[in-house]
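Entry for succinic acid complex. Fields follow.
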Amino acid sequence: MEIRTLTPHIGAEIFGVDLAQSLSNEDFAAIHQAHLEHMVLVFRDQHLSREQHKDFGRKFGQLHVHPLNKQRQGDEAILVVKTTATSAYTAGDGWHTDVTCDEFPPMGSMLYMKEVPECGGGDTLYADMYLAYELLSDTLKSMLEGLTAVHDGALPYLGSYKIAPAEGQYPRNEHPVIVTHPETGRKLLYVNSGFTSHIKGLSRRESNALLDLLFRHIESTPRLTCRVQWQPNTLTFWDNRCTQHHAIWDYFPHSRYGERVSIVAAQRPAA
Ligand code: SIN
């Protein structure tokens, strides 16, 4: 297995692994370690059935069922990410961490791209939330410690995508604003413009101003990011506990198609 980094701190391409074959313990350990170190792993030229894609996911834990899949036909563990000339939106077209409205948000997601826009484009940006935290001043860091934010599924799914929940309401949960990664022990910034509605204990105006500052910090700091340029049969596996991503919809009216498997985290995000 060979690892070539995309940037010094986030993203790596992994060569010499066929994910359709059962992984040796040694390869699994190397991928696990690389995932913790580089956060975003890109595997090229993979030829996977849906079952093989899910099997790779299961190596890291229980498969996640996306709230939008509860009202859709088909395999509930596969989230179809499809954009065409008639799409009203493209999934993930804004900085976010996947499904932080859940009590146990995914520890990671594996997006397997099958069709890329024929005109080019359709890349995904990933941002390092350890570095986002480290670049804050000590004064702001200590102000954020101990704060709790509300993450609400209605914000993207109803507000942006206009999809009513299958029944009841979309999940809504609280997580610390600064969390500690359960495996690396490193601190990171854990609010995202996709799901975070407000910070508890602040007035609405204070919460909006603080979240706006943090969201701008992520949007306007290019050094936080790496960029994945997809090809058909690329699979990217990101650590959803310490990254955000943004799918770029720059290819209208062309199409893009991928399938995502996510893995439920074993622990709630915790300080
Ligand atoms: C997502 O998982 O948010 C979609 C990412 C992408 O389509 O690149």
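NOTE: The domain at 2-263 is CATH 3.60.130.10 (Double-stranded beta-helix).
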